Hints:
GO terms for molecular function: methyltransferase activity. By secondary structure, the protein is an alpha/beta fold. It has one domain (7-273): Rossmann fold (3-Layer(aba) Sandwich). 32% of the residues lie in helices and 16% in strands. The chain has helices at 12-23, 32-40, 52-75, 91-94, 108-114, 136-141, 165-178, 193-196, 221-225, 258-261, and strands at 79-84, 102-106, 124-128, 151-156, 183-190, 232-239, 267-273. Strands 3-2-1-4-5-7-6 form a 7-stranded mixed β-sheet. Strand 4 (151-156), helix 7 (165-178) and strand 5 (183-190) form a beta-alpha-beta unit. It is globular and about 50 Å long. The chain starts with 11 loop residues before the first helix and ends in a 5-residue tail after the last strand.
Amino acid sequence: MKQLQGIPESLLIPLAARSYETERSRGIIKDPLSQKIMASLDYDFDKFSGSWMTQVGISVRTWLIDQLVRRFIQQARRPLIINIGCGLDTRRQRLNLEDVPWLDLDVPEVILLRKQFFRETELNRFIAKSMLDETWMDDVMTWSLYSEKSEILIIVEGVLMYFERGEVQQFFNFVSRKFNQHQLQMIVECCSQLMADHTHYHPTVSRLDSKPTFKFGYNRLPDFVKILPQTLRVTSEHSLFDYYSHRWKGLGVLRWIPYLKYRLNNKIVVIRQREREI
C-alpha cells in the first residue's frame, strides 16, 4: 500500500476494525464487504488485530452513525449525502442506500484506490479533492442530482482530528456559507484534546507506517462550539462510551463520569444549520 502515505493510510484502520467485528457471532455491526476488500489488499493488517479498544470504538461509531443516517433519510424529503474523507467506507452499501444521491469525497490517491472496489453510478459520484479545497462544493452544486431544495447531510468520520484547529474552523465556515440556503445537517466525529496531544499512545494510529498525528480535539463541548460559525448549532453530542457498555470491559464505568468519558474516548456530534430569520 505504498500509494497511501500520511493521513490516507489511516483509512485501513476502520476497514480492519469493521472486518474483525464482522467475524464475531454477536458483533456490533456486520460488514462482509469490508472483509472482502481487506482480504484483497496487500497490507499487514495483523498489527491492528490485537487492539480491542480501537475495534470496539470504530464498531460503535459505525453503528451510531448508521442510526443517525437512517434517521436523516427517514425525515428528509430530498436527501443528498456527502461523505467527507470516505476512504473505503461501506455505509451506502451496508444500509442499502443505493437509491439515495450520495457523493464520496477524498484525496485523489484514495479515490483511485476506492475505484478498485466501487464504481460510480448515476446516484453515486466520487470527488477527488481535499475537504479544504473549497471547489468541491462547486462540484456538488453542479451535479445533476443536486437541487436548491436538497436536504444535505455531511458525514465527517475519522477525519477532523488530523487537521489543525484553524483548518477545522475554516471548513465549517465555508460549508455553512456555501450551503446557507439548505436544510443542512452534519454528523462529525471528534477526539479529545487529551487524545490529540498523545497520538503516540494510540493503539493503532501509532502503528501506521507513515505515522500521521492527531492535531485537533476538544475536551468540553463549549470549546468545540467556539470554532463554529453562528450559523451552525450543535443539537446533540454522543460519547462512544454510552453504547455497548459491556464491550468496553472495565472502561464501561466511565460513561458515568463525564469528566473522563469525554476525554478518554471519541464523540459523535450532530450539527444543524440555524434557520434563517425572515
